[in-house]
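Homework help board

Subject: predicted structure for assignment chain

Our instructor gave us this sequence and asked us to write out the predicted structure in token form, then describe one feature. I got the tokens but I'm not sure how to describe them. Can anyone check?
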Amino acid sequence: MCWLLCPRCPTLAAMDPCDASSPITTHVLNTSDGVPAARLPLSLHKLDVHMMIWNLLTVGTTDDEGRCAGLISSDAFSPGMYKLRFETRQYWESLGQICFYPYVEIVFTVTDLEQHLHLPLLLSRFSYSTYRGR
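My token output:
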């Protein structure tokens, strides 16, 4: 389940994790074990170019298939620089294992609001890889 931070109030609003209409989606795969990375905490941030700070937009956890589709609504989606942060240490510790990278951050720029951005993460305890998917 992903949670959208309301910009006008300090509350969280639930977003549907199966909402494929979200302009940004992700899919995390545990390549060490050949399974989806279920229950991996993650967050989506957007850079405030005037203050040069990252603003937290969404927090979530991957589902049993390693997906967290409802990261941002189309209404909240705007051009700019975004960061998707994956809390990999928490994930590996939940499996009783250690890892080298305590978190993974994918920073990317959005210029075309009509395009869907799918950002898969292939993850092992000592490496990771990402790419722009479809």
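Reply (TA_rk): Your tokens look well-formed. For the description, you could write something like this. Residues 88-94 form the longest helix (7 residues). That's the kind of observation they're looking for.
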